[in-house]
Amino acid sequence: MRSGGASLAGEPAMNLVCLLGSPRPRGNSTTLARHLCANAERRGADVRLFALNELDYRGCQACYACKRKLDFCILDDDLREVLAAVMAADALVLASPIYFGDVSAQLKGFIDRTFSYLVPDYYANPQPSRLPPDKKLVMILTQGVADAQVFADVHPRYEGFLKWEGFAESRLIRACGVTPATRPDKLQPWLDEAEDAARWLTGVDT
Asked: Is the pTM of this model over 0.70?
């Protein structure tokens, strides 16, 4: 999925990056994310979508090269393009199922690599991130457990880190009680939330 051009209001197109953390190409989190992206495109957004399971990359190596001699991650793998795309984007969508109480390994690997976005003195610096400020974030999380109290800690934990990195505004779409056997029509409430999130991201209410 890739589009470009002007927004419906005649302004330059907003730049949206979406990362699919599920290993299942038609999983529930992927379905919701693709629906959001399609609605954002319809509203004039330029969308880049990356299926992390199809990429070849390693997790953070704790080498601190991004603090000592570079201003980006030293690892030259498929995630380098993704990290650069997110840096240039106006908004980011992160989609993942909950596996063993956390986001997927594929998405966690990306999140760990965003350590490279932080400046060397990030603990003391009032502007700790190399990212341009005021990016928007949408997290899409799906889980088989129907009880929303279970795994409720996942989103606020990652939201805190990502806000530190420059994602000042965020939204959550959280689908509980969905499994690989869930019929598409049962996803409708969260598909509606995804469309509303596309309106919020683009600022285009059509």
From this structure: yes
